[in-house]
Amino acid sequence: MRCGAEKVSVHTAAVQNPKLLSQAAEKFGNQCVVIAIDARRSKTNAERWQVCIKAGSEPTDIDVVEWAIKAEKLGAGEILLTSMDADGMQKGYDNELNKAVTDAVNIPVIASGGAGNLNHLYDAIIDGHADAVLMASITHFGNYTITEMKERLKKRGIPMNL
Questions:
Q1: Residue 157 predicted with pLDDT over 90
Q2: What dihedral do alpha carbons 68, 73, 76, 77 form, nearest 10°?
Q3: Domains within the chain, CATH numbers bracketed
Q4: Is the sign of the CA dihedral 114, 118, 123, 129 positive or negative?
């Protein structure tokens, strides 16, 4: 933060030590603290997602929605929510997951994992109630430019600065 970063994202360290969120929020302000949550649908309960740590490779017994609520209470000002099930598949975001989390918290949620076309971005915002979307594959592989994405979203009624 002292080097000019506007926000910092924490993930595994916050799961292992939730007080880290409170400490960071007290020192830098909630608006600077982003909790990254890697989520995977539970194999034992299809209605639930579990938090995964270590870049999504290690599942925990922590419920994603409960963790999002707790992270907000501890001081996170934003959530970066990645569906490990949809990540890299380019078949669309897990909007059931996105909606479950966004409807449970009062802080912005960034949907991540699954974007394959421009309609997926719109769907994450409208159906998943996401405040923002993160996309990687569709830009890395040159499928769409940022300008094309923003223009399409704006044409569909999503406020956008061009």
A1: yes
A2: 100
A3: 8-155 (3.20.20.70)
A4: positive
